[in-house]
Every structure is written in structure tokens, then in C-alpha cells.
Amino acid sequence: MVIKPKIRGFICTNAHPVGCAANVRQQIDYVKSTPHMNIGPKRVLVIGCSTGYGLASRIMAAFGSDAKTIGVCFEKEPTERKTGTAGWYNTAAFHKYAQEANLYYHTINGDAFSDEIKAETIERIKADLGQVDLVVYSLASPKRKDPVTGEVYSSTLKPIGKQYTTKTYDTDKDLVHEITLDPANDDEIEQTIKVMGGEDWERWIEQLHAAGVLADGCQTTAYTYIGKKLTWPIYGHATIGKAKEDLDRAAATLRRGYKDVHLKAWVSSLKALVTQASSAIPVMPLYISLIYKVMKEEGTHEGCIEQIYRLFTQDLYVEVPEMDDHNRLRVDGLETNDKTQAKVEALWNQVTQENFHQLADYKGYHSDFLRLFGFGIDGVDYDADVDPIVNW
Ligand code: NAD
Q1: CA 190, 196, 199, 203 torsion-angle sign
Q2: How far, in Å, is the centroid of ligand 1 from the Cα of 57?
Q3: What is the pLDDT of residues 150-188, one digit of tens each?
Q4: Helix, strand, or coil here: 192?
Q5: Ligand 1 pocket: which of 88, 138, 311 to mutate (most atoms <8 Å of CB)?
Q6: Domains and CATH numbers, the chain
Q7: Is the Cβ atom of 276 under 6 angstroms away from ligand 1?
Q8: Where is the Enoyl reductase FAD binding domain (predicted)?
């Protein structure tokens, strides 16, 4: 089939297998162009391994440190008539390149929030790796089914306390306009914490520890976004921010709870980037288009793989990592520093529908968005007939 992007709202409903593979290849090539890690992870579990920051973490561990990786993700398999999800094709490509490089890999496709998938993962670790020395928790999901009660929680992206009126950008309509977001009620806040907070991360660590598969000195990290003034009303100080605060609580609990294996638990703060998760958040596409413009002009722009490279080499695998006041690792400084934020705020105040294409990195945003699904990548023939069926 000839595969062209099918965009619906903030999502693309199909993906290109050859383009996704090229995307994975480029990230691997980036890692291989950097010095190999002398001290790095060797047996790694990545929960949320198929796209965005989790995929970059898996690539960094495997190709930057020769790690054996087990990944967990939730992706749709292709059929004769419908393409698989981007994460499906990314994983297939990762497997292919890992195999060529003689690196161990195994991926479990299923609901990471369930105890069944946790048990299956543990069995696989026991059988193939014995133990793991790094657990990356990189899930982004709108829903979570509680493994004990069966209740399904939904996350919401709403401000807290009062209505918030702001500019936003509709990526599919190419339209800058104002929106008013109603504040979340207590139940919505609680449910968002249940989905995107630390509870499931803690449950993973508890079960991995109980099974004896956490190696001595094991590290674990979950990812957060902190941002600054422009994004606080809809992120940092909003429902998702409450869930992220809960990650800080969970990290502190994990640090206290597993002294027998000297577990090091971190929340790592990363920069705002176009991923499937961030495109769904109101305001973020506008903020990201503007911050891309500023950071590209400053020469400080990075993608997922560059961010994760720095996280691994400058924070996770150094003798004493630098932490912020909440014991978090920060890789987002090039975005959140005052000088860069002042520039983005100035643009934010001026931006309108009329000047958006001049003031913002409109092209960069769209190209990164399409790339998530394997489209718009140099060297890929998008008129060619390709087989959507790619197996792992
Ligand atoms: P993403 O949408 O690209 O990736 C999400 C991953 O989670 C995928 O591998 C998906 O398969 C997996 N997943 C979702 N639900 C699952 C389930 N039920 N079971 C198993 N796997 C499941 O998201 P991302 O942007 O890379 O986000 C990852 C983390 O990084 C999140 O915690 C996010 O808040 C954080 N983060 C993102 C940004 C950003 O700008 N994108 C910035 C800072 C931090």
C-alpha cells in the first residue's frame, strides 16, 4: 500500500514503516557518533519503550552502553488494510538494528499498568537477564485500569482553581486562537494523579524487588516536565502537574524503601518536545513552536535522543549527579533558564494568527510531528508501495 499521513485533530492515525525505521536509525546513528559510555547500564527495563523519551532511553542504553534491553509498550499491530502504530514500527526497527549489532532485546506489548504484564516482564528478566540495573519509567497514557479494583481512571488536562483563558494553536487547522479552559474538580485531579502519578511506578519497583530482580545499586527514573510561567497554568500548576508532583513523592518513598539493594530513584526533568503525548496538551503546540524558534536561534535545540544522551552521561552515570531542591535531575536548563524564557515570553505576547508563521518555528513543529509517525523523512520514497505488515 502507498501510505500517506492521515491526520485527525492532534493525532496521525497511521504510520509509515520505512519512515519509522529511518527515524530509529537516525537516533541510533546519533548515539553511535558520541563517545561510548565507560560506565553505563547493562541490563535495562524500559516501561514505555516504543516512542518519545522511552524509545530514546532504550536506544541510548543499547547502542551507547551495549545494554541488554527489555521493553514494555502498548502498540497496535498492522493488518493488511491498516498500518500499525508508529510505536509498533519503531519497535520492529529497534529489534532489527539491535539484532544486527548482536544486542539482546525483548519487547512485551500489553498494558503496563496490569499485574499480568508486570509478572510476564519479571519472568522474562529472570529467564534472560537475571536482574536489571536500570528501570526507566516513561509511560504517557490517558487512562489506567487499577489492577486491584478494576476501576478505570482517566487523566484530564485542566487548570486548577480557576478558569484559564489563553492563546493556543490548533495544529491541524493551522489556527492560533483563544481558548478558555474550565478548572478541574477534585475527582479529575485525583484521577489524573492515579494515571500519571507515581503509584504504578512504585508498584513496578515493589514487584521487581519482591521477585529479586533488582540488581544491587539499581537505578530507576521517571520523567517529568516542569517548565516555567508560560506553561504552568496548564501544566506545572494544573492537573498533570499534580500528577508529576506525585512522582516526586514516589521517588522519595522509593529512595527510602529499598536500601537493601541501594536503589537510586530519580525524577528526571526533560525539555518540551513534540511527541504523541505533548501534542495532546492544549497550549503546548504553541509554546513548543515558539521555544523551538528561540532555541534553534540560540543553537541549543535538542531532540529526545540528545536529551536522553545528556541524562545518561551527565546525570545518571556520574559519581555525584547535580540535583535541584527536590532531588530531581534536570536536563531542561537550556529551555527553562530566564534568558531563554524571556525571549519566548516576548514572542508569546506578540503572536497572532497573522504573524504565527514568522514568529514561531511552524515548519519545525510540523516536521517533527510528521516524523513521529515516520513521514517527511529525507530518503524515504513515500510514493512507493510498502507492505504494512512488519513483524517483531
Ligand atoms: P509518548 O506518547 O511518546 O510515549 C508513551 C509510551 O508509553 C509509549 O511507548 C507507549 O506505548 C507507552 N504506553 C502508554 N500506555 C501504555 C500502557 N498502558 N501500557 C504499556 N505502555 C504504554 O510520550 P513521551 O512524550 O515520550 O512521554 C514519556 C514521559 O516523558 C511522560 O512521563 C511525559 O510526561 C514525560 N515528558 C514528556 C515531555 C514532552 O515534551 N514530550 C517533556 C518532559 C517529560
Answers
A1: positive
A2: 12
A3: 999 999 999 999 999 999 998 888 899 999 999 999 999
A4: helix
A5: 138
A6: 7-142+153-160+187-282+301-333 (3.40.50.720)
A7: yes
A8: 323-386
